[in-house]
Amino acid sequence: MRRKIAAGNWKMNGTTTALSELATLAGQIPANAPNVVICPPATLLIASAEACAGTGVSIGAQDCHMQASGAYTGDISASMVADTGAGYVIIGHSERRDAHAESDADVNAKAQQVWGAGLTAILCIGESGAVREAGTTLEVIAAQLAGSLPDAATGANCVIAYEPIWAIGTGKVPTLEQIVEVHDFIRAGLVTRFGAEIGNRFSLLYGGSVKPDNAATIFEAENVDGALVGGASLKASDFAPIIAALAAS
Ligand code: PGA
To answer: For residues 41 and 15, is the Cβ–Cβ distance under 8 A?
Structure first.
């Protein structure tokens, strides 16, 4: 059995007033709910972890540094994230790979920091629109996995999120066939690399314009174990139906 996970990435949105939205969401989690993770901005990690303690909502950070400590002004280490009470860290999001020039090697190093701090990584991969049009999506996905996923990865310490860059924040969603193709490809690659026992344990999330009205269809795919949701995770009234659709899948 794999963990079903509905993860919300608030990106650079939310001040302390957003904590009430979190409390509303935590109050709406059904008993049969999948794992729910909210990744607020770093400024809200401690308050969010406190607000969600004892509820069905776990907290995650949106990034961490690839070193354990040192002269890295403005950055946050994995152990600092753990100290907030958070349990997860998103690493390798395309917005960080792009705007902060993070390489697969950087993401690989971050994963190891995440595990060293006892946290779970949500490791993001995904192709650009140009790659999709060029027909080389699977090659790019394979290279990202080979470069950014360390050998010590397991289904317990790592969740993989497939997020086509062209679908993030655009309202453009791949067809179910396109999602199935990539998720099945990732699963097969994990089984080849880690063996069936470990490879089948990784939860694979789809991300990119997941909304209440398309979530159920996306969750029909056998190798889609949940979603990484941006815009639709900001309001409990949008995210709760996505969680419910995952619970029903
Ligand atoms: P979106 O973002 O749901 O707003 O498209 C997804 C993500 O970037 O994780």
So the answer is: no
- Measured from the CA of 9, which atom of ligand 1 is nearest? 9
Task: Write out pLDDT tens, residues 32-49.
Answer: 889 999 999 999 999 999
The DSSP code for 165 is G
Could you give all domains of the chain from N- to C-terminal order, each with its CATH number? 5-248 (3.20.20.70)
Please state the atom number of ligand 1 nearest to the C-alpha of residue 11: 8
Give 12 Cα–ligand 1 centroid separation in angstroms: 12
CB 242 within 8 A of CB 227: yes
CA of 70 to the centre of ligand 1 (A): 31
- Please give the average per-residue pLDDT across 177-201, as a whole number: 98
Is 185 exposed, middle or buried, given 0-12, 13-18 or 19+ CB atoms closer than 10 A? middle
Query: Whose alpha carbon is nearest atom 6 of ligand 1?
Result: 230
Span 99-126, pLDDT tens digits: 999 999 999 999 999 999 999 999 999 9
CA distance 113 to 129: 31
